Amino acid sequence: MKFLSVLFAAWVVKVSAHYTLPALIAGGVDTAQWLYVRQTNNWETNDPVTDVTIDDIRCYTSTESDTSSTATVTAGSTIGFTAPITLYHPGVLNVYMAQAPAGTDVADWDGSGEVWFRIYQITADTDGGETITFPSQNLAQVTFPIPAETPSGQYLVRIEHIALHVANVYGGAQFYLSCAQIEVTNGGNGTPGPLVAFPGAYTGNEPGILINIYYPIPANYTQPGPPLWTGAGGSSPPVGTTSTVTSTKASTTTTISTTSTKASTTTVSTTTTSSTGSSTGTTAAEYGQCGGQGWTGELLLSFFGSQAPLIKNAPDTGPTACAAPYTCHVLNAYYSQCY
Ligand SMILES: *[C@@H]1O[C@H](CO)[C@@H](O)[C@H](O)[C@H]1NC(C)=O
Ligand SMILES: [Cu+2]
Fold this sequence. Notes:
mainly beta; Coagulation Factor XIII, Chain A, domain 1; 2 domains; five-stranded mixed β-sheet; four-stranded antiparallel β-sheet; 16 strands; binds 2-acetamido-2-deoxy-beta-D-glucopyranose; binds copper (II) ion; copper; CBD_sf; lytic cellulose monooxygenase (C4-dehydrogenating); oxidoreductase
């Protein structure tokens, strides 16, 4: 048994870490990993960026120096990213675009400068302090439209999932991100903005980045980033207002401008971090520990559902279930908590 525990510990260190967003969805096709998406430093480790002031917050390619093929997509069409290991942490999501300077192939461009505009988000849902939920959690893919008004040209598309499970301290938020290379065709005459730089867009002190999502439960949530750009000349109109879309292009623009951006979320959920149901005879109270390395094999079970039988023999040293109505959530490799 001791040998097994040691083996499990090593396994956890190697593979417990996190996730990546390595593949572009374009033309309705789920393309190969790292074909149109620049290979990120964490392609093996899956580790996040936690320092918003370093260049890696842009495309996370400092050690890979990778460039990719460039996918051709039509303005107004829907593209996306897949996450082979689902976005299993509670967090929020942003998508940014940046146009390569005229005459520069996007494959030769690093995306530096105040060039990034934000086109899509999946934020957190709050209700005044009763609950906070994260609709992007556990997604295996994320799709979103390229605004129809986007001018034709070559762009980087940067997706980031900001995991907030340990964001209660500065530098605790975890940025899982990658950049795809696309060429937008049949574009419009919009002026994307406002523009921000990476690094520069975030200080790390934003209320949506430096936040304790557990206690007290936040009454409201402020999505990090500049206002969304969904077409036309400036930033998006306030949610709920009607915008006049003069473009003759597809109705996509109208939809985005006038409805919640959540409408186009693809909800593909393939894993669960809940471990209620397994039992050691006792349950943990609210905010109590219900798993983690050295606690039980339960953490591994939640990461590797199909491989669970392999680890059933891990020693139980504490409760793995939560008192009703709470459920067990994996915060990191070492700690799972009831809430
Ligand atoms: C909630 O709203 C208040 C008042 O606008 C603001 O100060 C605070 O930062 C917000 N909290 C979050 C987590 O966004
Ligand atoms: Cu993680």
